[in-house]
């Protein structure tokens, strides 16, 4: 990307950020839904990829049902971006009241005892909102962010998350894994997105009945730090009229579902240390994949993945959009 184009993209991002915060909530929501509906009608390559992806979550869906699910998925994805742009202007009350924790795994108990934890998340719901809530309600939060081009865009996202109280390390930096391990040992919550492998060294797992590669990072960091690994599903829910959360001005809230921690399996007798670690990472990653797959089946429209994820799609390449359009 040329320097001039990078500057234009960065300027556009900042303008969108300011414009989204300036709009009243109903107008921002209506604009997000309208943009999603336009993308749905165009049926570009990414929309068709989303259709192919969601078909795995609802394999028995009739064409009309699947099309409705794609439309709702695009709307949910547009709401995610609208909320991301608006999050820095939200009050502490809004961030906290619009998140509901279902802590079956006992994450709060671990943190209250002074321990840290790693959380394996998917691209489900609004993980940025969940992270901001965690920094306010659970304790220090440290995570990673994919490096974006232009660099100014990456810096904007890092600064945005830091303003929300989330410490961000760059994905792929040689020092990042060590930083995450130290944070977890120091009592931080370390949430890591796991359902897309961005390192080319992912762990093969079965997910929604097919093979995918998922990030090894959550299991690697949890094992190295000696802290529990919790699979976490983040999903959205409409807020009831008259509720305290709705009175903050929000229409949708976030549910954070913490599953029981996944444990490393017993090591085979006499197995070398490296082999034991590989087996533990593989088993723990598969256990997280099972929980995330259940979350996708229950709330498929909340799964914001418009890129090829399944091995079959990665090999074949993304579907072509109608009339050569792109979403």
What does this structure look like?
Helices cover 50% and strands 16% of the residues. It has 327 residues and is an alpha/beta fold. The chain has a domain at 92-313: Glycerol-3-phosphate (1)-acyltransferase (3-Layer(aba) Sandwich). The strands form three sheets. The protein has a five-stranded mixed β-sheet, sandwiched between helices. A two-stranded parallel ribbon has the order 3-4. Strands 6-7 form a two-stranded antiparallel sheet. Helix 1 (3-22) packs parallel to helix 8 (151-163), helix 2 crosses helix 4 (63-86) and helix 10 crosses helix 11 (273-298). Residues 322-327 have low confidence and may be disordered.
Name its key features.
single chain; about 325 residues; Glycerol-3-phosphate (1)-acyltransferase; five-stranded mixed beta sheet; two-stranded parallel ribbon; globular; disordered C terminus
The helix tally amounts to 12
Molecular shape: globular
Percent of sequence in beta strands = 15-25%
Number of strand segments: 9
Structural class: alpha/beta
For this structure, the CATH topology of the domain at 92-313 is Glycerol-3-phosphate (1)-acyltransferase
- Calculate the terminal CA-CA distance, rounded to whole Å: 20 Å
User: What string, H for helix and E for strand, traces the elements in order?
Assistant: HHHHHEHEHEHEHEEEHEEHH
Percentage of residues in helical conformation: 40-55%
Widest sheet: strand order? 1-9-8-2-5
Radius of gyration: 20 Å
The average pLDDT score comes to 90
User: Uncertain spans, ≥5 residues at pLDDT below 50?
Assistant: 322-327
CATH class of the domain at 92-313: Alpha Beta
Named at the architecture level, the CATH assignment of the domain at 92-313 is: 3-Layer(aba) Sandwich
Largest sheet: 5 strands, mixed
